[in-house]
Every structure is written in C-alpha cells, then in structure tokens.
C-alpha cells in the first residue's frame, strides 16, 4: 500500500508545484542517455506503425509507400543533376554540351514533377491517417480507463498520467507515423546523396556527416528538454485545467461568486500559470543555447567541407565539373540531413509522448482486475462481509478494519454511524467497485471476486450518496442502470416508488427532456428532484440487493416517507442495505450495524441498541430530542 507524507500545501491547500519535480520518473528521464533514446526509436516507430495499421492499413501503406517512392525519386533527381553538370562542364562546343546534358535535364524535370505529385499524395494519405490514429488511440484509452479498478482514480500519479495521455499522448500518436515516413524518405534521399558524393570523392562523405551532426544533436537535445519539462509540469497543468474549468463552467459559478472566491482563484491561477510560464521560458533559454552551440559547430563543419572541396580542386585532385556536382550534392545532402534530423527529432519527441501514452495503457492494464470472474451470481440469499479491511491508496489509516456484516434476502439491514465512519466505503466494496485489502465478501457463499462483474452489478441496485447526473434524457438517466431497451413497466414502477414521476411530469418534454441545460430544451433540477432521479435509477433494475446510501438526504418529508416504505416493500423479495442518518427510519430495520472509525462497534435491532445505551442510543437520543423540543445539554454548551 502506498503511504506518502502529505505534500506541502499551497494557499489553496493543493500540492506545492515544485513537488512535481520529485516525481519518480523525473530523475529517470534525466539519466536516460541520448543513445538509449535513439535505440528506442525503432521500437517506437514500430508501435506507431502498428497503431496506424490498426487504424487504416490502406492509408498506412500509402503514407509509407508514397514517401519512400518520393525519396527514391530524389536519388534520380540528384543523379540527373550530376549528369547535367558533367554534360555542361565537359569539353567541346556549347550546343554539343547542351545536347549531352539534355537527357539528364528531361529526366530531372520528369522526376521532380513526379516527386511533387507523390509528395502531395503522401500528405493526403498522412492527413487521413492522423485523425484515424488519434481516434483509435482515444478509443483504446477510454476503453482501458473505464475498465480499471475504481481505486486508480484515488491515485494522483495515475490522474496525472491519464491527463498527459489525454491531452498530449493522443495528439502526438496521430503524428508519429507521418514523421516515421519522413525519416524513411529522407534516409533514402540521403543514401542517394551519399552514393553520389562517395563516387565523386570518398572524403566528401565524412565531411557531409560532420556538417549536420551537431545541428541534429542540438535539435534532439532540446526536444528532450521540452519533453522533460512537460512531464515535470503535468501536475501544474492539471491544476490549471481544474481552475480554468471552475472559472469557466456553470457548476462552480454560483459558489465562486457567493464566497467571493474570484480574487483568490485568479491569484492562484496566476501563480500556477507563472510557474508554468517560467519553467517553459527557462527551457527556451537552455534550448536556444544548445541550438546555438549546434549551429556554430555545424557552421564550422560546413566551412571545413567547402574548404576541403576548394583544396581538392586547387590540388588538381578533382576536375571542375566534379567539384560543381559535389558542391550541389553536398548542398542537397545537407538539406536532406537537416530534414532527416528534423524528422528524427519530431519522431523522437512524439515517440516520447507515445511511450508515455503506452505507459498509461500499461498502467491501466495493471490497474484492471486480472481476469473477471465467470461464475453466475444467482438470486441472492445471503451476502456476507467477513473481516474486511480497506485503506484508500493515498490514506494513512484504514477506512475499514475487521468489518463483518450479513445481509439476507427479505431483510432490511441498516448501516449507521457518524460522518467518515466508513459507510459509503463499505457500500462501494459490497458493490464490487473496491477490492478489500483483507477479508472476504461473499454472495451466497461465493467470493464476489469470482463472480461475473456485469451480472453482479445487474443484481445490485445502487443508489450512491454522490450520484452523477448524466447529460442524457430523464429516461436514460433512470434506465441506464440496466442494459437493453427500457422496460415501460419497470420504468413506471421506478418512477412511482422514487417520486421521480412528479419530477418528470413537470418537465417540458417529459422523459425525453435532457437533464442538462447545455443542450437544447435541457432542464435543470432541484437537489431533491435530482435525488429522486438517482433513486429511480437504483430501483429500476429490480435488483436482488438494493444498496441505498443516504437516499433521502435531499428529500422532503413526504418523499422520504414514500421512499422508506418502498424499501420495506422491496425487502419482500430483495435484500436492502440502507445507509442513513435519519434514525427514525432505521427503527423498522431488521438489523442495524453501527460503524465508528471503520469498525462495527454495535449491532442489533433498534430496541437492542437503545437498551444497550451506546453510540446508536446517543445519536438517536440527539435526533429524538430535537423533535421533542428538548435540547441535549452537552450540545447547547458547544453552540453557545
Ligand atoms: N476516495 C477517497 N480517498 C481517500 N479517502 C477517502 C476517500 N473517500 C473517503 N475517504 C475517507 O474514508 C473514510 C470513510 O469515508 P466514507 O465516505 O466511507 O464515510 P461515510 O461513513 O460514508 O461518511 P458520511 O456519513 O459523511 O457519508 C473517511 O475518513 C474519508 O475521509
Ligand atoms: Mg457516506
């Protein structure tokens, strides 16, 4: 289990920005040598090609094939240009020399036109490939993230990783195949130039390599700096994203104004964005220095190359025609090497983001339950929780320790306890969404980990304390808890029992109304109305086990009364686990468990627990006193 010291707090109580420097991967990245990075490139290109192939075999073939063909044509162009020069610089009268150069001239022209056409076609195929790869990668990302265990989302490193994958990885993955194709094109062009210059004079080849190597080194080094900084800034960028969301979306708009949070939010936003800006500016400075060093070294090498050419010419070791061709070939070679370095650089940078994305995929796979159980759960007779311990990934202490409870068909079991005592955590574990660190949860004697998760979820009607209102129609918001098309009878029952029928009756388009005002004809609901919809969602599947976590917190007295009688009626054929602070409602429960700091401290019927005079009796006493008009002495003192 991951145990960390709390990070130093910012004015907003969020992690200090500089702490992101100490993410474990940061040091690794700094230590990774350029050579190792380059040796990883082929594997990254292979992965990129696999993704492209998966997205569209035809466009992958076209992108790679057309680029390679364009590269091959560069070789023809260069050979033809050398032919033109040799023809022109040969001995003899001008018309004859022109005639000698003509075939090469025609060949060069035809090759150039064809190369331009092939390049355009390659750009077209590449343009098609990019969105297709992006989509395939995005689909893979969401299909993996939605399969992970729920705990993954309690881990900030995972949240950072997914944020990077979503915002950068997906985008870069779409581009890497194009860069890989560019590398192939430029390699072929370069091969042609290398052959030509070697034929012209063997010393020209090492000189050519020397000219571009420093520039390439600088470009790759600066890409690495940018990427390392991007990773180091991912927490800050996520914070910025959160702040932007809070300041531009409706959800937080009212609180932002009511609590006069604007100055604090703007100051915090400025502080983080300044931090990001300064970090990026620092990289720009270091990148410029690196590039300048590369350019200066490259310039010196270029001078040396041309000096060598002149020296060869003066020494009579190279005829003028060959020197002219060599000059041209060297220029082309330098341009091709420049483009190759650019392509390697871009490919390498995208590759870094892609490997980060692949790491996110791996992490997601590691956080996915190994093999889902296949046993069919069957109708519930008894659900038993035995000696369960559970701690949240980032928490110091257990949220639950040694918890044992039993819920049987036809019974209402209530779970009570003060805030933070572990009730919702236990409900989430029973639903199979969290996995206990110790102990077992069995469904008719079978560990729920061995049960088919989809079938298990279909047998549990969960009304969560923190429910999400989906931007769907009212009907979909209710029926989404069961797969398949909506069953009108079950829908009618769920609407009636939850009181959501009155909500829907007031909606302009009834069940078809989108429950989100960002959409046309969308409606917004009151807190209690939302809770009725959430209750209807949990009741719709007519599940074997209804887990209702604070289902009436926002309901009016009549709706609350109706929902509790619903649970009693439901308990005829199902089991009900009711979590509530309204202790008047737990009086009729068949059995009550009292949780305190993650332990079951009391259990029994209402009468047993009142007689026992423990925590339950105290909490019940406080509520009853409020209704009887009396105020418990202890609390009066605290409030005065
Ligand atoms: N996602 C989480 N990550 C870390 N700790 C959590 C998380 N959710 C809850 N906790 C902690 O676990 C403990 C139990 O929380 P839980 O939500 O189960 O309490 P509860 O009994 O349902 O409280 P309430 O009556 O307020 O709903 C609390 O200390 C809470 O702060
Ligand atoms: Mg709770």
From TrEMBL:
Organism: Streptomonospora litoralis
Record Gene3D superfamilies: ABC transporter type 1, transmembrane domain (1.20.1560.10), P-loop containing nucleotide triphosphate hydrolases (3.40.50.300)
Protein name from the UniProt record: Lipid A export ATP-binding/permease protein MsbA
InterPro entries on file: AAA+_ATPase (IPR003593), ABC1_TM_dom (IPR011527), ABC1_TM_sf (IPR036640), ABC_transporter-like_ATP-bd (IPR003439), P-loop_NTPase (IPR027417), Type_1_exporter (IPR039421)
PANTHER family linked to this entry: ATP-BINDING CASSETTE SUB-FAMILY B MEMBER 10, MITOCHONDRIAL, ATP-DEPENDENT PERMEASE MDL1, MITOCHONDRIAL
Domain ABC transmembrane type-1: 176-349
Molecular-function GO term, any one: ATP hydrolysis activity
Record keywords: ATP-binding, Hydrolase, Membrane, Nucleotide-binding, Transmembrane, Transmembrane helix
Enzyme Commission number(s) from the entry: 3.6.3.-
GO cellular component: plasma membrane
Subcellular location: Cell membrane
Transmembrane spans: 65-88, 100-118, 176-197, 203-220, 306-330
Membrane topology summary: Multi-pass membrane protein
Entry-linked SUPFAM superfamilies: ABC transporter transmembrane region, P-loop containing nucleoside triphosphate hydrolases
Keyword Lipoprotein: no
Domain ABC transporter: 383-622
């Amino acid at each position: 289990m991951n145990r960390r010291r709390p990070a130093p707090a910012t004015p907003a109580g969020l992690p200090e920005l500089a702490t992101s420097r100490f993410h474990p991967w940061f040091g690794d990245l700094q230590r990774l040598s350029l050579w190792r990075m380059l040796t990883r490139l082929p594997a990254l290109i292979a992965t990129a090609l696999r993704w492209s192939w998966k997205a569209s075999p035809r466009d992958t073939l076209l992108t790679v094939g057309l680029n390679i063909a364009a590269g091959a044509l560069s070789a023809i162009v260069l050979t033809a240009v050398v032919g033109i020069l040799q023809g022109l610089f040969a001995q003899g009268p001008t018309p004859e020399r022109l005639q000698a150069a003509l075939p090469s001239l025609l060949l060069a022209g035809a090759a150039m036109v064809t190369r331009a056409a092939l390049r355009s076609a390659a750009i077209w195929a590449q343009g098609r490939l990019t969105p297709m790869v992006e989509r395939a990668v995005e689909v893979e990302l969401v299909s993996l993230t939605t399969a992970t265990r729920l705990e993954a989302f309690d881990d900030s490193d995972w949240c950072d990783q997914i944020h990077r994958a979503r915002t950068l990885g997906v985008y870069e993955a779409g581009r890497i195949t194009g860069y890989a194709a560019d590398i192939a094109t430029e390699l072929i062009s370069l091969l042609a130039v290398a052959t030509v210059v070697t034929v012209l004079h063997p010393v020209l080849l090492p000189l050519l390599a020397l000219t571009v190597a420093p520039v390439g080194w600088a470009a790759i080094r600066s890409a690495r700096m940018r990427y390392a900084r991007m990773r180091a800034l991912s927490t800050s960028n996520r914070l910025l994203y959160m702040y932007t969301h809070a300041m531009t979306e409706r959800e937080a708009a009212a609180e932002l104004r009511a609590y006069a949070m604007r100055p604090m939010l703007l100051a915090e936003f400025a502080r983080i964005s300044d931090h990001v800006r300064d970090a990026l500016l620092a990289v720009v400075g270091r990148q410029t220095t690196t590039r300048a060093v590369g350019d200066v070294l490259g310039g010196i090498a270029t001078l040396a190359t041309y000096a060598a050419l002149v020296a060869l010419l003066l020494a009579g070791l190279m005829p003028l025609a060959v020197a002219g061709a060599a000059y041209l070939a060297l220029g082309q070679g330098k341009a091709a090497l420049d483009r190759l370095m650019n392509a390697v650089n871009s490919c390498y940078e995208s590759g870094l983001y892609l490997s980060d994305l692949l790491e996110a995929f791996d992490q997601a796979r590691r956080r996915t339950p190994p093999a889902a159980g296949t046993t069919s759960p069957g109708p519930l007779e008894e659900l038993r929780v035995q000696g369960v311990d559970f701690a949240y990934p980032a928490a110091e202490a257990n949220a639950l320790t040694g918890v044992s409870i039993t819920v049987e068909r036809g019974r209402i079991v209530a779970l009570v306890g003060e805030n933070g005592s572990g009730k919702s955590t236990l409900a989430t574990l029973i639903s199979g969404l969290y996995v206990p660190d110790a102990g077992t949860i069995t469904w008719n004697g079978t560990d729920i980990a061995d049960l088919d998760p989809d079938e298990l979820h279909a047998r549990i009607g969960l009304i969560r304390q923190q429910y999400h209102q989906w931007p769907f129609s009212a009907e979909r918001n209710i029926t989404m808890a069961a797969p398949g098309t909506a069953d009108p009878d079950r829908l009618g029952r769920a609407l009636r029992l939850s009181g959501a029928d009155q909500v829907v009756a007031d909606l302009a388009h009834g069940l078809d109304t989108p429950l989100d005002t960002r959409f046309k004809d969308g409606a917004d609901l009151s807190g209690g109305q939302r809770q009725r919809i959430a209750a209807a969602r949990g009741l719709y599947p007519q599940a074997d086990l209804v887990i209702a976590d604070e289902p009436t917190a926002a309901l009016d007295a009549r709706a609350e009364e109706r929902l509790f009688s619903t649970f009693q009626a439901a308990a005829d054929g199902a089991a009900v686990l009711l979590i509530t602070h309204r202790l008047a409602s737990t009086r009729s429960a068949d059995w009550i468990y009292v949780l305190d700091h993650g332990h079951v401290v009391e259990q029994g019927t209402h009468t047993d627990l009142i007689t026992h005079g423990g925590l339950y009796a105290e909490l019940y006493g406080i509520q009853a006193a409020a209704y009887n008009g009396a105020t418990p002495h202890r609390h009066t003192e605290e409030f005065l």
